Amino acid sequence: MKNIKYFGLLLMVAVFAISCTKTEDLNPVPTTLIAGASAFETPARISNQVNGLYATFKGTGLWGSNYILYSEARAGEFISTNQNPLQGGLTYMMLTDAGTTDVNIVWQQAYQAINACNVFLEGMDALGRKAAGDSLYNNYTAEAKVLRAITYYSLLQLYAQPYRNNAGKNPGLPLRLKGNTGLADYNLARSTVAEVYQQIIKDLDFAENNLPSKYASAALNTTRVNKNSAIAFKTRVYLTMGDYTNVTVEANKLVSTTAPFTTTNATRTTHSLPADITTVFKSPYTSTESMFSVAFSAADAPGNSLATNFLPNSADGTGLGAAGTGQFYVFEQGIVSDATWKTTDKRRNFIFTTPSGTNKGRFWCTKFVVGTPFTDYIPVIRYSEVLLNLAEALANLNGLDTRSTALLNAVRGRSDATTVFIPSSKADLINKIIAERRIEFFGEGIRNGDIMRLGLPIPAKTPTGSTPVPASNPSDGNYIWPIPNNEALYNKLIG
Asked: Domains in the chain, please, with CATH?
């Protein structure tokens, strides 16, 4: 009974704590507690705990919007209209420090998600297997490990040097694999970047072997991770590590050898490129391209949505049909100016142009276009990324690779059938793939990670009529975020 109360209390602390003081950041006080003895008592109640893990993962500070928003604010495809420090302005200007809200809020939300997963895993090991049975035990623990893996990966893209620097031997993150029970447990030194990536792969490998092949509905197959979700995310992780061989190993589990490049395992979820990319970002958000997305509804709206920030205000959005606060517009000198991105490309439908007024001609991202309460789903990973991950890996391994070129043309051809790439060299092929990623995934938080894994500078932002932001080189102090003050205050081993 004592152990049951212990795990029940910890789990509800991890999942339901929302607002915290500095001390409460580490020992949050729950607003709601169920009886500790019942936390892992039945499969239904354990299922509720799993739903809580997804809820914490999609909190505003993490995948609910801010992780993606801040990643895009850094990466050079968007311009801040007013450098609002409450809406990513300091991140945009590359002026963050250890006390900046952006730096602290992502870290706090991420480690709340990690701690929720850790406490849940401990509860399942101690009590949940008996109540749920082996099958559900494997399913639920695998889901928790995927969410933990994605969260650690997300943190690495902001707070740690890229894997390519010093072969992952640089300081990474505190690698917490046990639930926090109090300040006495909080001191933990940073593991290396490589060690954190090793744990991410370990979690994803476990998940691939233990997740369901598919769920009973398209909605669940989109909003809960399954075997294909775990495999897909491994292609992203290995690409970030520069491990092109393992990218191909994992991607080949999902991608057919030749066009039209669909998944081949009939027992699992089926994935392909829908003919119209705009359907991926429309209700019901369950296209064959959607491999894992976070879901929102009117009763479960994000606190600070991407649409709020990316959509123009009413004055600049005349005719659009939905309005936001206009915090970030699309940089006119960024990828939107690429001459190979034709005006007839269907992905141009995700760009709205202010028709009149002071800001006539200004571009806005409309991938997330549902108006208040801003309930667009947010893709965590899409099938088109797996294709481009594989294309890039094959090009790096084999040079001017035929299948790599075909994969690139499949992604471009879905939205622009009039363009067929004929690369002239290995470098040309890779450059075309990287440019295609910028077009395909703009606004989805991927560009920042691409910049870092490729060892590129974070580009200068030189908008017309606004304050320029200089480039940040990999050797510059502002290239990655610092460890937040709150962590350094309570973790005496952080260094």
From this structure: 1-211+474-495 (1.25.40.390), 306-365 (no CATH)
